[in-house]
Amino acid sequence: MRDPHHLEHLLNPRSVAVIGASDDPLRIGGRPISYMLKQGFAGRIYPVNPNRDVVQGLKAYASVADLPEAPDVAVVAVPAAATPAVIAALAHRGTGAAILFSAGFAEAGPEGAELQAQAVAAARTHGMRLLGPNSLGIVIPRTGFFGSFVSSVELGMPRPGRVAIVSQSGAYGGHLLSAATAADIGLSAVVMTGNEADLSLGDVLQIVVNDPDTDVIALYSEGIKESAGLIVALQAARRARKPVVMMKVGRSAVGSAAAQSHTASIAGNDAVIDAVLTELGVVRARSTEHMLDIARLATRRIYPAHNSLGAITVSGGAGVIISDAADDVGLPMPEMPQPAQDKLKALLPFASPRNPVDTTAQFLNEMSLIGQFLDTMVGEGGYQSILGFFTYTGGAPSIAPHLRKQLKVVRERYPDRLFVLCIQASREQIRGYEEDGFCVFEDPTRAVVAIAAMGQFGRAFAVKDRLPVPTLKAVTLPGRAPTEAQAKALLAQAGIASAPERACASADAAVAAAQEMGFPVVLKILSPDIVHKSEIGGVLLGVSTPDAVREGFATLMGRARAAVPHASLEGVLVAKQLDGGVECILGIQQDPVFGPVALFGLGGIFVEVMKDVVLHRCPFGVDVAEEMIRSIQGAPLLLGARGKPPVDMAALASMLSRLSAFAHAAGPGLGSIDLNPVLALPAGQGAFAVDAVIEIKPVPTA
Q1: Three-state DSSP string of 555-588
Q2: Domain of 179: which CATH number?
Q3: Residue 133 and residue 105: Cα distance in Å, rounded?
Q4: What is the pLDDT of residues 104-151, one digit of tens each?
Q5: What pLDDT is attached to residue 264?
Q6: How much is the pLDDT for 265?
Q7: Predicted confidence (pLDDT) at residue 54 exceeds the cutoff of 60
């Protein structure tokens, strides 16, 4: 985070000035004061209004200069044109941070962007930080600090808790606040970032990661303007074992355009965002409901790295629903050990003891069965997560107290396990179950999805230090796209091997090269102006004699002249034809948000039709590279499926890792790299780039 000075008070100010304060508690400049007074904010509130001596019962001040002290935080609710002067006055007084409600800045066009730049410059002169502009501000339920005019709190004030909400959208941030309150989720902070003229999404995330009152973070994002700070903050969250669930919108073309219009930021490629969030241990939410379900369960702070689900139910149908949901999200539901099944059968002969374990309605006659069944499941089944489906029986006054007592005894015996219940009950009864250490859902599918997310967090938190990135010499890119031969020579400096080959300007040279390499060979047209050679018939395979080489040379030159008349032709590339491996594709794309991103997949139809590829932000070591390779659906073809020998995994992972290091070292002038195919030979025989295309892109000057 840039310059953390003064940020310690942004969530916990001791004094707050409201510039543009209104005596009307329903106006934008009046709501923060009204909310803080109603919620008992213990700090000092200084309304600034040149036209009133008193605002909502508080002494008002005519200007920032008249304030009795420099406030920790200022809330600015004045027109955009007046904002730079107000910011300059606050910064001069020594105010730590300001929350800018005002709209009409960068989101409104060039004139607004200039006003925004003036405000930021005025703040930075004295080290003051800005949240916004166009921000709905900050809500801290624990202290009653409302640096916000969000009206959703009229539907219900949030209760203090351990979940922080950070939202780029103000209106949607208010929606999330209201939805969390309705779901009885306690909140530590709600921060709505607005235009992010100064404090970025990553900066604010770092603030809540550092907040001792926050355990879980729910993040809503429309577009990522500054990726470096966000990555650092997400890494800090993982180190602190504070789970982040993120709702990143703008997946569709229409959605992406709307996000840019609304926040003046870059949405980025959605597949890349998925890959980066997975790398950093973030669980991506599909909906508001999904995000809040995960956040609520995460407050239990139990994140099993080797997650497995045991389900106990009073309904066979619910058991099927739970099993289907677990299969959909890849959550293992292993069977109970046979001795444990036999034990449960002895207790209740007509029970279904496999997993899900169905006690049937008999538990109504013998309530102790629930405790015995559950204790056996946890103790002998070894499940890390337990889901109990008790539906309306969990809320029935004749049943609930006895059921709760049985469940509580087992949960207390296994405090390291995650216990979740599906019941229908009153809000008061549900709070009772949750005070006992259970998390309660009404819908079993939603419960399973949230439980699976806890395992994702656990696996992310368990990741150890990674292997180092390969060290390369400085990379100097050519001024224009290189030929295939030049591209391979450039990559060879990074240790990326290709098939033996030679650039030949004449047929005689091509014949000599082929005879030296040994037949058969591959012939390819060599031109910086022809990137996709196969599209013009510019590749000949299985060339097996000197005469065939001469004929092939003439054929390729003729096809190239006919297809691309103005192309610069440098001859033909003669390469040793390799056989017996598995074709793969390795590539680099330059993402506008996250920089170079590596791609791996199987070659041929698998990449073009099946889209079976994996992405990862560059650079990374061979351990990450091997994880990528093993993660694709087609990995068995590389590992020795159907009796074929496994490929040289060490060589393939090394090549992918070195490619990532090369891309990182090359800088923004690298447009893309396409190694397709790469031939992964059997173990011990290496991996070789058969074709290589490097695209260069112009780098804009500052």
Answers
A1: HHHHHHHHHCCCCCCCEEEEEECCCCCEEEEEEE
A2: 3.40.50.261
A3: 7
A4: 888 888 998 999 999 999 999 999 999 999 999 999 999 999 999 999
A5: 34
A6: 38
A7: yes
Q: Does residue 173 share a domain with residue 105? A: no
- The counts of H helices and E strands in the chain are 22, 29
607 and 555 in a common domain: no
Residue 40 within any structural domain of the chain: yes
369: pLDDT confidence band, cut at 50, 70 and 90?
confident
Domain containing 613: what range? 582-696
585: which strand partners? 601
If one counts the domains in the chain, the total is 5
Specify which of 263-267, 371-375, 649-653 reaches the highest per-range mean pLDDT: 649-653
Tell me whether residue 224 is in a domain.
yes
CA separation for the pair 437, 502 (Å, rounded): 69
Question: What token pair was written down for 254?
Answer: 């229409």
Say whether pLDDT at 239 is over 80.
Answer: yes
Amino acid residing at 274: D
Backbone phi and psi for residue 579, each to the nearest 5 degrees, phi listed first: -135, 160
Strands 216-221 and 145-148: unpaired
Contact in structure between 514 and 546 (CB atoms under 8 Å): yes
Backbone angles phi, psi at 284, to 5 degrees: -90, 125
How far is 596 from 376, CA to CA, in rounded Å? 51
Asked, as a colleague might, if the bond just before 444 is cis with ω within 30 of 0, I would say no
Structural tokens at position 123: 């703040």
Same domain? 567 vs 589: no
- pTM given for the model: 0.91
Residue showing tokens 């058991």? 319
Same domain for 631 and 570?
no
Tell me the pLDDT tens digit for each residue of 623-638: 999 999 999 999 999 9
